[in-house]
Amino acid sequence: MDMKHLIPIFVIFFFFMSTTSASVALAPSSSDTQSFSFSKLEGDQTFSILPTDVDLKLQKICGETDYPIECLTTTVPFLDENVAIIPVSILKVEIDAIHNKTKEAIDKAYEFSMNPSTSRLLPLCLKTCINNYNAIVESKQRIVDAISIGDANELSMELSHNMEHVFACEDEFKEAKIKSPIAELNSLLVKIITNSLTICVDMIKF
Ligand SMILES: *[C@@H]1O[C@H](CO)[C@@H](O)[C@H](O)[C@H]1NC(C)=O
């Protein structure tokens, strides 16, 4: 694990340590099964944290991804208890999460483009982002089909394209020297897509 990955985990760790309880509920109405207790675990990494009262199989799957916290927070609330916790079922939930977060990003981008802006370039950047997000939304059916026929090449190609679409959106703001108003969602999207690629490439035996 390099520093790029370690830093957000430190931040998250100290954030939770600084709250009165080490447990965090994912949703206001969440039941006990949706509460995480974070604890420090010894592992082959010098320092890692993983929720301890989450399904062990899910902990193992998410633990092998680059962004375990995002893997858990985007899947735990959406796991049907009748669904087997195996990499392919987690991948399907992550694909749904990518779809939902992309739609959220489209809404945000529209919202920002309606606001009177300090930069005349902002609406242009947002327009590119919306086009890229739409391409991600359109890829969902191809991804679902690729999973169902077990086409790992198609699947990783579609996911890689989606990642490029998100990076290209952020690059628009960089080039225009504008602070990205959707950096947080884009960062989350990149993390979920990265995790999906890891699950698809390293964990599923197609
Ligand atoms: C995605 O959104 C749909 C519709 O709002 C919802 O039913 C589903 O649980 C969401 N899934 C994820 C993983 O966010």
From TrEMBL:
Q: Which UniProt keywords apply?
A: Disulfide bond, Signal
The record's listing under InterPro entries reads:
Invertase/methylesterase_inhib, PCW_Enzyme_Inhibitor, Pectinesterase_inhib_dom
Q: Return the SMART domains for the record.
A: PMEI
**Domain Pectinesterase inhibitor, chain residue ranges per copy:** 51-199
GO molecular function annotations of the record: enzyme inhibitor activity
| Leader peptide range in chain numbering | 1-22
SUPFAM superfamilies given for it? Plant invertase/pectin methylesterase inhibitor
> What family does this chain come from, according to its entry?
Belongs to the PMEI family.
Protein's UniProt name? Pectinesterase inhibitor domain-containing protein
